[in-house]
Specification:
single chain; about 230 residues; mainly beta; 1 helix; 13 strands; elongated; disordered N terminus
Length: about 230
């Protein structure tokens, strides 16, 4: 799951004045150390109403996709996450569970660890003679403050992460599916955006209880140019 966490500079409750519509942010991208094409994100609006929140930042990504985020009154950054990929991952493993999309909050202001269970159910799956326990959970962390050098400037940032973990098992012993996706952001209040982001995904599948494979993929985004309206 790739979470694109953005926000607006604000003194509380969203509704900041920066970045304004038309502002652009271009990142150098590499995946597991291999350079990829640069990606540009364009601010559509910083004042839309979306999924129960007002003064939401709407951003268009390089493929035309729209992402939404909001700065809370305590300085936390909330991002709206499309979880259809989670559902697709489960369905590909024969687990038919639909997880609704929702807001995730990264505690950059409150600095309190946030966690919740998105799904917890025992299911009957075709071809498996025993009930399967499926648990999906999320954890958001404050990781500290730092200075990030990007686009020829030094940005004071707050660092945080949000992780979504999936585990499906038979009898608590035989793992059918185990996966975790984490997005780490460095958010700059002065920029109203982030000068750096890192996405990490790992996937372990084990259908025999005797072994499995683990794949780790890391994608880095570092700001190289930006224009603020």
């Amino acid at each position: 799951i790739t979470l694109q966490a953005q926000g607006t500079a604000s003194t509380g409750g969203g509704g900041g004045t920066s970045p304004k519509a038309g502002s652009t942010f271009t990142y150098a991208v590499d995946t597991s150390g291999v350079p990829q094409g640069d990606s540009t994100y364009t601010v559509v609006s910083n004042s839309v109403s979306f999924q129960g929140k007002t003064n939401v930042l709407e951003v268009r990504g390089p493929t035309g996709n729209l992402t939404y985020s909001h700065v809370e009154s305590n300085g936390d950054v909330s991002v709206y996450v499309d979880l259809t990929a989670i559902s697709a991952q489960l369905i590909s493993a024969g687990i038919f569970a639909v997880i609704p999309s929702q807001w995730f909050t990264i505690p950059l202001g409150s600095k309190h660890t946030l966690s919740s269970v998105l799904f917890d159910s025992t299911l009957t799956i075709t071809g498996i003679p025993f009930p399967v326990l499926v648990i999906i959970s999320d954890t958001s962390l404050y990781l500290g403050s730092s200075s990030v050098t990007a686009a020829g400037k030094s940005f004071q940032t707050n660092e945080g992460s949000v992780s979504v973990a999936i585990n499906a098992s038979v009898g608590g012993f035989v793992t059918l599916l185990s996966a975790e996706n984490t997005t780490e952001i460095w958010y700059s209040n002065s920029l109203g955006y982030y000068p750096k982001r890192q996405d990490v995904s790992s996937n372990t599948q084990n259908t025999t209880g005797t072994g499995g494979t683990t794949t780790n993929t890391t994608t880095n985004y570092k700001l190289i140019t930006y224009h603020e309206n």
